[in-house]
Amino acid sequence: MKARLLTSTVILLVVAVLVIVLQSLGQGQNRVFEGEDRAAILAYAQPASQALIEALDQGDFEAFSANFGRKMERQFTQADFDALRASLAPLGGYQDFAVQQVEFYNGYIITTCHVNYAQGAADFKIILSPKKTHTLEGVSVRLPTP
After folding, report:
1. How far is the C-alpha of 118 from the C-alpha of 140, rounded, in Å?
2. Which residues does 57 contact at the CB level (< 8 Å), separation at least 6?
3. Who contacts 120 (Cβ-Cβ below 8 Å, separation ≥6)?
4. Per-residue pLDDT for the chain (146 aa), expressed as one digit of tens each?
5. What is the dihedral angle through the alpha carbons of 146, 115, 80, 103, rounded to the nearest 10 degrees?
6. What are the beta bridge partners of residue 122?
7. Is 0.85 surpassed by the pTM of this model?
């Protein structure tokens, strides 16, 4: 009985250590890109971000959704697009944008952009697949607080 209890304890301890090691390895994959790595990702992420922001400003849902991944195709509708446009309308017309950060997080490339409009600004997080297709997997917009 004692040998069985000892064996079970050792197995649980090994499993616990293995879980901790695997979690720490997974967290190490999340990182902010700098230098040459950042430039390489921006070669595709910046034009994709710009096209997305411009399509949103122009009210062109077809262009906005052209690079959607499967999940985005199912979840982000014309109505969502119209609601997002309406939330940005008080900021006026689109002026320009700047990429503030490029990171790899939870298996995705996330480009954080500061977007300037005629009467204000908003921050976009544009989430792309790291696969060769670089499909759009998500977008979030933080509007200024009044």
Report:
1. 20
2. 88, 93, 94
3. 90, 91, 92, 144
4. 555 444 444 343 333 333 343 344 444 579 999 999 999 999 999 999 999 999 999 999 999 999 999 999 999 999 999 999 999 999 999 999 999 999 999 999 999 999 999 999 999 999 999 998 899 999 999 998 77
5. -110
6. 115
7. no
**Which two three-digit tokens encode residue 30?**
């999340």
Place of tokens 């005629």: 118
Distance separating the N- and C-terminal Cα atoms of the chain: 67
For residue 126, give every residue at least 6 positions away whose Cβ sits within 8 Å of its Cβ, in sequence order, or none: 45, 48, 49, 52, 110, 111, 112, 113, 136, 138, 139
